[in-house]
């Protein structure tokens, strides 16, 4: 199954993706995790990405897309994936479409995790990642509203809305139910 996960920062996409990845047997590909791994290893990509991430801004698309393309070309992603954090703009969505059409495949759906802004701010402050301070969170929410939320219209009928407020297991149950209703 080839799925994109959408939702504001702090919606719990990463947590849900880890569980879904296990249950569906497809890799969880998180651009945030890939960037953080590169930062940890001090790669040139990590060094460049870090200044954007620390500011709560998007890493330039060219850099991000190159990283995603390399990851999607790894053998474990051949039969499916959960893409978390990409695309984040309409431009990135068309890059993804091109990448997939080169492989002769397409997305099965786009899970949109829905949660109110006050809940996501609370969650992010509680998780305390390095880029989770109030100012960065505000910037990221602004970027989400302006650049990422338009993807909901862009994907149209492919969007599967999931109420992301509740316990982890509860939200996962909703996602699994929604996915089992997909034509296969
Ligand atoms: P969150 O879901 O809380 O926003 P992520 O781990 O998905 O956290 O992303 C952390 C940061 O990594 C983002 O704020 C952004 O700077 C960068 N990033 C992740 N994905 C992308 C992307 N597709 N394009 C540009 N920058 C990205």
From TrEMBL:
Pfam families: ADK
GO MF annotations in UniProt: AMP kinase activity; ATP binding
Catalysed reaction, written as an equation: AMP + ATP = 2 ADP
GO biological process terms on file: AMP salvage
Top enzyme class: transferase
Binding-site residues, AMP: 31, 36, 57-59, 85-88, 92, 129, 140
Binding site residues for ATP: 10-15, 127, 166
EC number: 2.7.4.3
UniProt superkingdom: Bacteria
Protein's cellular compartments: Cytoplasm
InterPro entries according to UniProt: Adenylat/UMP-CMP_kin, Adenylat_kinase_CS, P-loop_NTPase
UniProt KW keywords: ATP-binding, Cytoplasm, Kinase, Nucleotide biosynthesis, Nucleotide-binding, Transferase
Job of this protein: Catalyzes the reversible transfer of the terminal phosphate group between ATP and AMP. Plays an important role in cellular energy homeostasis and in adenine nucleotide metabolism.
Subunit record text: Monomer.
UniProt-listed HAMAP family: Adenylate_kinase_Adk
Family: Belongs to the adenylate kinase family.
Comment block on domains: Consists of three domains, a large central CORE domain and two small peripheral domains, NMPbind and LID, which undergo movements during catalysis. The LID domain closes over the site of phosphoryl transfer upon ATP binding. Assembling and dissambling the active center during each catalytic cycle provides an effective means to prevent ATP hydrolysis.
Annotated protein name in UniProt: Adenylate kinase
């Amino acid at each position: 199954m080839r799925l994109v996960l959408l939702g504001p920062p702090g919606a719990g996409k990463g947590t849900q993706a880890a569980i879904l990845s296990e249950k569906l047997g497809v890799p969880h590909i998180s651009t945030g995790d890939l960037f953080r791994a590169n930062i940890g290893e001090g790669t040139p990509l990590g060094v460049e990405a870090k200044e954007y991430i620390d500011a709560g801004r998007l890493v330039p698309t060219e850099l991000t897309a190159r990283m995603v393309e390399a990851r999607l070309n790894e053998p474990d992603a051949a039969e499916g994936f959960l893409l978390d954090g990409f695309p984040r703009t309409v431009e990135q969505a068309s890059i993804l479409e091109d990448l997939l059409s080169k492989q002769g495949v397409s997305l099965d759906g786009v899970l949109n995790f829905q949660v109110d802004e006050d809940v996501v701010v609370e969650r992010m402050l509680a998780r305390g990642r390095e880029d989770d301070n109030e100012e960065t969170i505000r910037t990221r929410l602004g970027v989400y509203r302006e650049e990422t939320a338009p993807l909901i219209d862009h994907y149209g009928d492919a969007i599967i809305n999931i109420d992301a407020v509740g316990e982890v297991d509860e939200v996962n149950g909703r996602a699994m139910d929604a996915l089992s209703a997909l034509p296969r």
